[in-house]
Every structure is written in C-alpha cells, then in structure tokens.
Design brief:
Elements (H helix, E strand, L loop, with lengths): L1 E5 L5 E4 L4 H4 L2 H18 L3 E5 L4 H9 L7 E5 L12 E2 L7 E9 L3 H12 L3 E10 L4 H9 L3 E6 H4 L8
Parallel strand pairs: 3-4, 3-6, 6-7, 7-8
Antiparallel strand pairs: 1-2, 4-5
Helix pairs in contact: 2-3, 4-5
C-alpha cells in the first residue's frame, strides 16, 4: 500500500508492506513454507516460530509442507498470559531445541529481538532467522546480532518496490 502509515516500530513510512496478503493465499503459503522449511533444514533447526501474529503464518506454512514434516512450531507472546500456565513461548518446543526464528516483515527488528530474548530465557537455541520481507531499514542486521546467528530474507523491499521514495 502506498500512503502514510505508522509501523509497529512507531516509525512513519510512505508505504506499507503486508506480507500476509501473499502468505494467506495458497501459492504464497506453499512457496514460503518450502523456503522456510528448507532454511530450517539447512540450519539444523527442529522448531520454527517467532513473535505472535507476525510469525504465525510463516510458521504454519513451514509446518504444512512436506519438508517441514519433522518440525514443530511455536510463537512468542508480547505479554505473558495472566492465566493458565503463564507462558511466554507457546507450542510444543522444549528447552534446548534449536530454533529458526521467523517473521513476516522486518523493519527495525525490535519485535523479533524481543522474541529472541524471551526464547533464550526459555532455554531455546537460535539457529538463525528468516523474514518473508526485509524493508532494509537495519532490522536484519539487528536481528542477526541479537540472534548470534544468520539472518536472511525471502525477498527485500528493493526487489519489490525499487522506485520507492525513501530508497537510498
């Protein structure tokens, strides 16, 4: 979408990238699933997940394809649940599991970094991180540094919107 928007980071932007519009259609879901499951396999990850909402479609996509058959999924809450087991990390992932962190769209990387911190508190190992779209605003580097592991994007904003007004 072209037009003034406020991003989850609080920053203003002249365009919005909604990766979920592609991820929540069968061809995009399958393609992302294959690429994410492949990345998990390359990095030796047994689990795939990340920040709640943003990680749910790419996580489910990775689990739904044949290459993701051996994976488990999880998501990291932005706030601890006040009832039940009061978990930060939801899903069948156990301490010591090697995890691929996923996110739909990365700008600053803040929500993914917070998820990585919570994952480490729960004893999870970070194998790497994958974003469906990287807005190339420094988030990928921030995530890689926080994860101490490689970050990659399935596509960058330069590939999708090379004529954007903020391109350096």
């Amino acid at each position: 979408m072209i037009g003034e928007v406020t991003l989850s980071s609080g920053q203003k932007a002249s365009y919005y990238v909604d990766a979920r519009r592609a991820l929540l259609r069968p061809p995009g879901f399958r393609a992302a699933g294959e690429l994410i499951a492949s990345a998990a396999g390359e990095l030796g990850a047994a689990a795939v997940g990340g920040p709640a909402t943003a990680a749910i479609p790419p996580t489910c996509a990775a689990l739904a394809v044949p290459a993701g058959e051996g994976l488990v999924g999880f998501f990291v809450r932005s706030e601890r649940k006040a009832h039940g087991l009061q978990r930060w990390v939801e899903g069948p992932v156990e301490p010591g599991a090697r995890c691929l962190v996923v996110e739909d769209t990365v700008t600053t990387g803040g929500s993914t970094v917070r998820a990585i911190e919570r994952m480490r508190e729960e004893g999870l190992e970070i194998a790497g991180a994958v974003a469906v779209v990287d807005r190339l605003a420094g988030g990928g580097e921030t995530i890689a540094a926080a994860a101490g592991a490689p970050f990659r994007a399935l596509v960058t904003i330069d590939e999708r919107y090379p004529e954007r007004p903020d391109r350096a």
